[in-house]
Design goal:
The chain contains nine helices and five strands; from the N terminus they run αβαβαβαβαβαααα. The protein is of the alpha/beta class and about 240 residues long. It holds the Pfam family Bac_DnaA.
């Protein structure tokens, strides 16, 4: 049984507007695989594990990779384990037929034996695939996940591992600016700087605030300005 979840790509989740910061090596690696610019004969180079805390951009990067694959005519599938952990793990069956598979929130399988076995099996299948890309993201380092299947830890370590580096303030400004432009929100230039200086510097928190501002801006049909931010966020 294969249960494939439909994925709707958001225009703000693309490789073009992903601010790479100190993650240029990772972005270059993914683009080379997707564009076949570099031949990676070793499966370990096409099985990538991304580790990064909340707000590091993992989900953005996985969705952007799937979007780029689709634009290139490749078959792809994105799966968020947080949303599927209570579903049958058999949904991963048949994914080897895809050119690109992105599995998000691996930490959700911590201590869950049947899902760990399913992830282990899909990694093994991708080691035999020619040219396919398997991208796995986790918010916890792979050595801190509770393994019911110890061999899964070995398999994850065997792939190409990247740690997503946090953005500096200039990169956060660019990331927020790219996001606002992508979703079509009108804003003043000083609004972004104000948001960064008066609220959390954590990108996950910042994106939640931007979503709140987006909704309020749409409902009130107002541009995002410093006074608007103060009123909406009670600053």
């Amino acid at each position: 049984m294969q249960l494939v979840l439909p994925v709707s790509f958001r225009k703000q989740d693309s490789l073009h507007n992903f601010v790479e910061g100190k993650n240029s090596q990772l972005i270059c690696h993914l683009q080379n695989v997707l564009n076949n610019k570099v031949d990676y004969p070793q499966a370990s180079q096409r099985i990538c594990v991304l580790t990064g805390g909340p707000g590091a951009g993992k989900s953005h990067l996985l969705l952007a990779t799937c979007e780029q694959a689709a634009l290139s005519g490749l078959t792809q599938q994105y799966i968020d384990l947080v949303h599927t952990i209570n579903m049958p793990p058999e949904m991963l069956l048949g994914l080897i037929s895809k050119d690109v598979v992105c599995i998000d929130n691996l930490q959700a399988v911590s201590g869950v034996a049947n899902w760990q076995t399913a992830v282990f099996d899909i990694i093994n299948q991708f080691t035999e695939a020619q040219g396919a890309l398997l991208l796995i993201a986790t918010s916890e380092p792979i050595d801190q996940i509770e393994y019911a299947l110890v061999d899964l830890r070995t398999r994850l370590s065997w792939g190409t591992n990247f740690t997503l580096q946090q953005l500096n303030d200039d990169d956060k400004y660019r990331a927020l600016e790219n996001h606002l432009k992508a979703i079509g929100i009108a804003y003043t230039q000083d609004a972004i700087g104000f948001l960064l200086s008066r609220t959390s510097r954590d990108m996950h928190d910042l994106m939640l605030l931007v979503n709140t501002l987006d909704k309020a801006s749409f409902e009130s049909k107002r541009k995002i300005t410093i006074p608007f931010i103060k009123t909406t966020l009670n600053l």
